[in-house]
Amino acid sequence: MAETPTSLDGVTSLYRRFRPGRFVEMRGQEHVVRALQGAVEKDRIVHAYLFSGPRGTGKTTTARILAKALNCENPVAGDACNVCASCLAITRGTSLDVVELDAASNNSVDDIREIIAGAWTGTPGRWKVYIVDEVHMLTKAAEAAFLKTLEEPPPHVVFVLATTDPHKVVATIRSRTQHLEFRLLDAATLSSLLHDVRDAAGLGVDEASLDAAVRLGRGSARDALSALDQVAATGSVAAARPVFDAVLLSLGAGDSVGVLSALHQLHHDGWDPEQLGESLAGELRQCFLLLVAPDVADAMGEDRERLSTWGQGAGLAKTVRCLETIGRTLREMKSSPVPMMLLEVALVRLTKPELDREVAALEERLTKLERSVANGVTVPAPVVAPPARPIGAVQRTVSAPVVTPAAEVTPAPTAAPVATAPVAAGPVGFDEFQQRFAAKVVPRLSRSAQIFLASAALRSLDGQVVTFAVPSESLRSNAERIQSGLRGALEHEFQMNYQFQWLVDAAMDTGPAPAPAAPFATPPRPTATVEEEPMETFTPNDESASSLSMLLMNEVFPGAEEL
Ligand SMILES: [Zn+2]
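Above: the input record for the complex with zinc ion. Below: its predicted structure, written as tokens.
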């Protein structure tokens, strides 16, 4: 195995130093190599290729080899020589025949126009090769501009479009390319690659560490070689991946405190939430495969034993639930400002199946409700469909202290107007109550209660019964979650034991106009961005997941802070 001649400094990553320079040096991806090498040899190159596959499987490397083979001064059977001036220039990245573009950062229409303009100019070699990485990240306008060029490509130009997400590449572009799929490398291929690299680089790395690096690679040559880099630098792979033993142990035991402290330990060790989520999903997937189809699982050695044991202990149903939950959470984490919290909530849910059932049931009910509302179906009481705006305008003129017995307003089934003895005397008027509630009571509440109340309005005070209005049924069904904290804070302020009644007033629904009664001020605590999430949408989408997560989080860990 030959090292890339331009990078012998010993600092360059192994992945770069030992990047294959010819088709014959490629590991795995035989089907791709065969197709491309054959096309070069028989002069049947197409103008656009789509290379898809997981990261680190050789898409860009292969594109460069293709460029070399096309422009090589001494090609052999469709492969590059890797030593002629053209090949060396491509290796060094100085060749004018190869243009590389990362569509993730250069995705504008201007970037594409620049490429297109360049494509029509001459090139020193026979072929000009454009490598567009992460092509699914192009903007719509850039895609449209690009498509025109693909429809009538300049005769000497080859486009290689690389992507990890081929389904995100528009069909019009996809259909104008020859699609070659890159696969994860199997453990044997990675192992032989790492052995060769170790020997060629003269690294003192033992077999066990090499195996660990193969395992960490999870099918990606780049990841396996980075792991080998770490082993060579630090002498161990301990830092090369998060160790989930404690997390899995607590998950298996249903220990929510244990699972959180294990997760936090990993976080403090420097792993970011996405890395943790992805690695955990990877381990759970291995557990799942080891239960269902052990031949397909690629965990090896000790890992295989450990994950297999865990899977057997947890059982298939729980393993699947864990895998699904973490997988879903990973997706939600990508668009969340507080990904760590989502991961925490997911793990706690998994240790508390009863919590999960509640949420699932709640989500199911709300989905049904929202579907009926969306379809214009009249929903039977006590569920209330949001009325049209004009009704809302009328409702807003209703003065605050009056409970409107309108049809839109439904008493909550949870309302318990049972009077209990006051802790101490001190009935107050509604105005004073309202003022002290906003100034003194709200700040004492948990963050989730504050967020909840930001969507609610104080409507009336009748003896010891406090009536609130909320804009939707879905919010009302969550009201009981905050009641005990609310009762405590009220008691502290007024020395009274209050009961609550929650009304649904769809007219309050999130318009620019203020709700009839003054909603409570934004909570004074610094609360990052979570308050911006609308609380009234409890569809099973990302927002609802995070809103629910927030409530659950605070319920399970009162006073928990975001990370
Ligand atoms: Zn050459």
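Notes for the reader.
Residues 72-74, 80-82, 84, 86-87 surround zinc ion (CB under 6 Å).
The CA atoms of residues 176 and 454 lie 52 Å apart.
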